[in-house]
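User: Okay, second chain of the day. Same drill as before: sequence in, C-alpha cells out.
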Amino acid sequence: MFRSLPLRVLLALVMGLLAGTLLQVLGGTSLDSAASIVEAIGALWLNALRMTIVPLVFTLLVVGIASVADAAATGRLALRAICIFAILLLSFSLYSVLATRGLLSLWPIDPVGGAALQSSAVAPSADAVHASTLADFLRSLAPANALKAAVEDAILPLVFFGVFFGFAATRLPRDLSGPLLTVFRAVAETMLVIVRWVLWAAPLGVFALSLSVGFRTGLGGAATLLQYVFMVSLVTAGVTVILFGLVALTRAAPIQRFVRAAGPVLAVAFSTQSSLASLPAMLERSRDVLGVSERTTGLVLPLAVAVFRVTSPVANLAVAVFVAHLYGLEPGLHQYGAAILVAFAVSVGSVGLPGQVSFFASVAPICIALGAPIELLPILLAVEVVPDIFRTVGNVTGDMGVTAFLARREIKTSEPLSS
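Assistant: Same drill. C-alpha cells below.
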C-alpha cells in the first residue's frame, strides 16, 4: 500500500504534524534546536526542488509549443481539435478563478488555521501585495533581458519569451529545428531526472516541513488543509459537470448515450488517476457506443491525451488563488490575467508529466505570477492525492466530449447537399 509516493507523502505529512505538536507540548531549548535543524532539512529539500523550476518550465514550454505546432500541421481535423482545446482551456481558467474566489468569499480561510500554515513559509514581499497597473503589465510582457527574468523568477516574461521561441523554432529548416529541439528535450529530461531524485526524498522533506508547522502551531493548520482539499476538489469536479452540460447543449451526442459510454472510462480514470491508462477504454467506448469513426478516435483521442488536460489550469489556478488568499493577498485583474496566461501556457508543456512533477512545474509559476510564496506547495502536494482524482476524471470527460463534438462536425461537413 505504501509503495505509492502520494500515500507515503501523505503519511509523512500526518506524522510530521503529530511529531511537531508533541515537541511543542514537551517544550525545551534543546527541542527548539532540534526543530530548527529539521526545519533546515525541509528548506534544503525545497530549494533543491525550486532550482529546477525555471529551466524545466522554459524547456517544456518550447518543446510543447513545437509539438502542438507539428500536430496542427498534420491536418484540418487536428487543427480544429487544438482550437477547441485552447478555447476550453482559457474558458475553464476563467471559471476556476471566479469559482475559487466565490468559494473563498462564502467560506473564508480561518485566520488561526491560516496563520498555522503561513508559519511554514516566508511572507510575500511588499511589492507582491500591490496589483500592478495595466501599463506595468504590458511593459512586463516582453523581457528586456531573458536571463535576468529567469534569475528573478519573472515567470510571465519568461513564458512570453518561451512561447515566441517555441513558435520561432518551428519556422526553422528541419536540419536546424531538429537538433535545437533535441537539446531542449535533453535539458527538460535532465531536469525531470533531478526532480524525480528530489521527489524520491519527498516523504523526508514533507515530514521536515510539516514538523515545523506542528511545532510552531500544533494541529491548527489541519482544518485549513481540509478546506483546501475540499475547495480544489469541488472546483475541479465542477469541470466534469460543466462538460456533461456542454455535450448536451452542443448535441455532440445524446446525453444518455454519452453517460453510458463515459461510465466505464470514468471508473478507470478514478482508479488509475491516469489519462494515458484510460486511453484504451476511451477509444473502445467512443467507437462502440458513440459510433465515432476510427479516423476521428485514432487522431483526436491520442492528441488530446498528448497536449490537452482541461483540468490542469483549473486545479492549478485554484491552488494558487487559495495560497494567495491564505497570505491575505488581493491580486488585481492584471495579475489574474497574467496567472491565467501562465496557467494556459504551462499546461501545454507539462502534459504527460507524473502528477507530483507537474504539480510543482505548473503551480509554482502561477503562484509567482500572483505574488504568492511557493514554500507551501510541498505541504499541499501531500494532500494532492484527493484533488488528483477529479483532475483525471475531468480530463477524460473532456477528451471524449471533444471527440464526440468533432465527430458530429465531421459527419455534418461530409453530408452531401440535398437537391
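The chain has 20 helices and no strands.

User: Thanks, on to the next one.
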